[in-house]
Amino acid sequence: MIIAQIADTHLVADSAVDPMFQARTEDLRACIADINGLDPPPDVVIHTGDVTQNGQAEEFAHAGSLLAALQAPLYVTPGNRDGREGMMQAFADEGYVSSDCSFIHYAVEDHPIRLIAVDSLSDDDAKGDFCHHRLAALDATLSEAPDRPTALFMHHPPFDVPAAPDPFAYQRREAVADLAALISRHRQMVRIFTGHMHRPWMAMVGGVAASTVPSVAVDKRYGHYAPRMAEQPVYQVHRLVAAWGFASETRLVGFGADSRCSVP
Ligand SMILES: [Fe+2]
Q1: pLDDT-derived band of residue 15, with 50, 70 and 90 as boundaries?
Q2: pLDDT, mean of residues 233-247
Q3: Which helix (H) or strand (E) is 133 found in, with range?
Q4: What tens digit of pLDDT does each residue of 2-11 get?
Q5: CA-based, 20 to 30 A from 185: which of 3, 35, 114, 219?
Q6: Whole-number Å distance between alpha carbons of 224 and 230
Q7: Where are the chain's structural domains?
């Protein structure tokens, strides 16, 4: 199983309003072309949030027109920039985001690793949070299939990123402690994929490897990159290797043959 992970595209809808319209559009286009050219191709693409800059319907429409070029199925989870309602409406036709629920939560059952989308949004600012309802929903979904290896994907990383100006992405330490305790009770957990920090980072949460992906939007990226990486979008490819789980590559768009590999 191969997962391509993108995040933090921060798309805007109108070049007259935001000068980054063209650049961020091209960043995502180039990223999609690179993903479509992966050999072997990914089974699935996940977008771990901040699809849009302002959560506007026009921005989601623009995002949808670009993301439609992906050849692999796409699954999304909301970022603080997206907002929950806007994302629910924008992806309602995809069939996996339910408008009957007050948060975005679903499982993807079609692959060797079960994927669960987790809604990490808080109600009143850009930081993350988990209410009891969401943790209970996650607990219930994990309890449905205790023997199926499972990965979570969400926007806010539930661990400190010391290199960031604000290293902790959640409102409350208790929310992350509750999530870690929940994860540690479900032995089928194999990985947690996140975004939001716009730089690559890894940690352990409840005994499970958790990671962030750099932003696709080059102008929003943080951290230090080699000169030839500075102008290119970056995303990650997570390849499942039976012996030890996902092996992850932070992949530079536009240098195709450099990092192609085969999966055993
Ligand atoms: Fe974010």
Answers
A1: confident
A2: 93
A3: helix 132-144
A4: 999 999 999 9
A5: 3
A6: 8
A7: 2-259
Average pLDDT over residues 66-93: 96
Residue predicted with more confidence, 111 or 254: 111
How far is ligand 1, taken at its centre, from the CA of residue 199, in Å? 12
In tens, the pLDDT along 24-77 reads: 999 999 999 999 999 999 999 999 999 999 999 999 999 999 999 999 999 999
Compute the distance from residue 62 Cα to the ligand 1 centre, in Å.
19
Query: How many angstroms separate the CA atoms of 31 and 45, rounded?
Result: 11
CB 46 within 8 A of CB 35: no
Ligand 1 centroid – CA 3 distance (Å): 21
Distance between CA 264 and CA 261 in Å, rounded? 10
Centre of ligand 1 to C-alpha 262, Å, is 32
Ligand 1 centre to CA of 79 (Å) is 5
Ligand 1 ion: Cβ-proximal residues, 5 Å cutoff: 50, 79-80, 196
Identify the CATH homologous superfamily for domain 2-259.
Answer: Metallo-dependent phosphatases (3.60.21.10)
Three-state DSSP class for 259?
Answer: helix
Is the pLDDT at 251 greater than 80? The verdict is yes
Tell me what pLDDT residue 258 has: 52
> Is 16 within 8 Å of 87 (Cβ atoms)?
no
Residue with tokens 């961020």: 24
- C-alpha 202/C-alpha 12 separation (Å) is 29
Distance between CA 121 and CA 76 in Å, rounded? 14
Overall size of the chain counted in residues = 264
Distance CA 204, CA 97 (A): 28
Chain centroid, CA 213 distance in Å: 8
